[in-house]
Amino acid sequence: MPDQVSLYAPGNSGLHHLHPLTKLSLAGFALLAGLTLPGRWGTYLLVALFVLPLAAWGGLAGRLGNAVWRIVLPFAVSVFVIQGLFWTGGTPVLQLGPLSVKAEGISFAIASTGRILTVVTAFLLLILSTRPDALMIALTERGLPPTITYIVLATIQIVPRFQARAQTIMDAQQSRGLRLEGSLIQRGRALIPLVVPLVLGSIVDVEQRAMALEARGFSRPGPKTSYLQLVDSQWQSILRAALIVLSVLAVVGRLALLIIP
Amino acid sequence: MIELENVNYRYPASQQPALADITLQIKAGEFVAVVGANGAGKSTLLYALAGFVPHFYGGDFDGRLRVLGHDVAADGPASVVGQVGLVFQDPFNQISGARFTVREEIAFGLENLNVARAQMDERIDRALALAGLEGLGDRSPFALSGGQQQRLALASIVVMEPELLVLDEPTSQLDPVGTRQVFEALDRLTGERGTTIVIAEHKLEWVAAFADRVVVLDDGRIVEDAPPDQALVADETTRPGLGQTRYTRAGRLARQRGLIPADRPLPVTLSQAIEYFS
Predict the structure, then answer these.
(1) Enclosing H/E stretch for A33
(2) Count of beta carbons in the 10 Å neighbourhood of residue B15
(3) Segment (H or E) for A25
(4) B186 touches B31 (CB < 8 A)
(5) Nearest-neighbour CA in chain B from A221: distance (Å)
(6) Nearest CA of chain A to the CA of B29: how many Å?
(7) If we measure between CA atoms, which residue out of A124, A90, A131, A130 comes closest to residue A107?
(8) Which of A159, A216, A218 to mutate to test the interface with B (most CBs of B within 10 A)?
(9) pLDDT value of position B210
(10) pTM
């Protein structure tokens, strides 16, 4: 059983050592640039010239590629089929029996897939190269409530435990003769002895967990320190500011293009 | 340090009192064991000392309860956080879930108490050594065995250096070696730091060997409050569910068979047993 549901891939690269907010800014910039770049191919250039070099710097190009195609490919196939074949009007470029592939539909599918590719690669790279707790601590230092930080981080680690407990309950009930096969009604009935102990056990857990957190001063008001030390630098602060300005410019530029004919 | 006077408590929706007319004083630096059958009120008494009863559960509470000068029944656990440490029986639910290594998990309480980063490593190293977890600092807390997690729960509280340490069956998942480590660690805490220990425990051999006093609970009432060699020699017929140490059982058997004179005090520890049988 994995210890957590996080995709973080530990490493010692320059990308790994960047401050989490710098990586978040890079991902945010890629997201906004990807959504605002005009034309069909700009997003692919953005991935090739901006995201992929960062991934290579972090030694994460292989992992990124592995994860990206699983997410983007199903989307790309569906958008090409639906937009290519069912585009209203448009110029037919290929006849497939009663259906025809439209040039405008293909063009739209290329642009949509490029945008999704940019968003997915940018944020996957952020997740692959950044410890989730480091990112949440960085956000807490900028004002995010510690309760939200706790909920996000605890979920990452507790979900696998929850799955393991569900499996244990299922094994225990099956060993006592519970049948999980059969008609829909039989399967629905079999859910009760699985769900009830899982939910009741979790409620008891939550009570104890809340007490244990309280005993360790979690809800104590006032300032808190952090054991995990985040390394920041002046050049990273400047880079973050520059990325924010560029992101704003990208949005403003896109709006200007929409407004000015 | 701890004063309870005529404390009564009943959980919400319960007809039976969980604590009935409890009067108890515990001095600083004492090592006190609370024993009794399941449902006798051990955990409730411990939760009251840490401020969780009635604050967390609600219910009817009356009587006087002061811990380190605080009215914890009125002010709740927040009034004594850092001063009173509470270790629960189930180690899994004590892992915060928000930290990714054992060292970071132990640091969680220090972070909440706003302890300076510069002090943390030394305190974490001491806690790891005390709990016998050296070399496991960089592991995920969830990758530890149940016994290791139980010792992690202890280390996570000890690192906060509380004046009063309250432990609810902290060795339930430990093997004999792990249990010995925990009791020796607690003994060091009382000896070196003067930490007051109040522990609920079923393993009476260890209680007999390390506790200064044993408080026996039955149906929410204190029925005995005495040193181990007095409190733990009761016959099982008069204290059902409490049990006795293997040394007491052997001594009583030898006495019944006429092998040992009846006026010789029954043993509760190994050293007493050696003397008893020699």
Answers:
(1) helix A20-36
(2) 6
(3) helix A20-36
(4) yes
(5) 9
(6) 21
(7) A90
(8) A216
(9) 92
(10) 0.81
Best CA proximity match to A232, nearest among A138, A127, A132, A128: A138
For residue A128, CA distances in Å to A9, A27, A141, A180, B177 come to 5, 12, 22, 37, 41
Q: Which pairing describes strands B221-226 and B213-218: parallel, antiparallel, or unpaired?
A: antiparallel
- Selecting from B97, B112, B120 the residue whose C-beta is nearest the C-beta of A154 gives B97
CB contact under 8 A, B81 and A224: no
Distance of CA A165 to the CA centre of its chain: 25
pLDDT digits (tens, 9 = 90+) for A159-177: 777 788 888 888 888 888 8
pLDDT reading at A4 higher than 60: no
Q: CB count, 10 Å around CB of B10?
A: 19
Amino acid at B54: P
**B167 interfaces chain A, CB cutoff of 8 Å:** no
Place of tokens 């002090």: B119
Write down the pLDDT at residue A175. 86
B231 vs B237, B248, B250, CA distance in Å? Answer: 14, 11, 17
Q: How many helices, marked H, and strands, marked E, lie in chain B?
A: 10, 9
Rounded Cα gap, residues B202 and A257, in angstroms: 76
Amino acid B255: pLDDT: 87
Mutate to test the interface with B, among A144, A220, A225 (most CBs of B within 10 A): A225
| Residue spans of beta strands (DSSP E) within B115-170 | 164-168
Query: How is the beta sheet containing B84-87 ordered, strand by strand?
Result: B84-87, B164-168, B196-200, B31-35, B213-218, B221-226
Q: Which chain A residues touch B99 with a CB distance below 8 Å?
A: 133, 153
ipTM comes to: 0.86
The contact set of A with B (CB < 8 A) is 3-4, 131, 133, 149-150, 153-154, 157-158, 160-161, 205, 208-220, 222-229
Nearest to B95 by CA among A208, A120, A162, A190: A208
Q: Any chain A CB within 8 A of the CB of B11? A: no
Residue B139 tokens read as 């592991």
Tokens linked to A227 = 């054991």
Among B84, B112, B160, the strongest candidate for a mutation testing the A interface, having the largest count of A CBs within 10 A, is B112
Taking an 8 Å cut-off on Cβ atoms, the answer to whether B97 and A215 are in contact is no
φ, ψ at A131 (rounded to 5°): -65, 130
Residues of B in Cβ contact (< 8 Å) with A226: 111, 117
What gap in Å lies between CA B263 and CA B273, rounded to an integer? 15
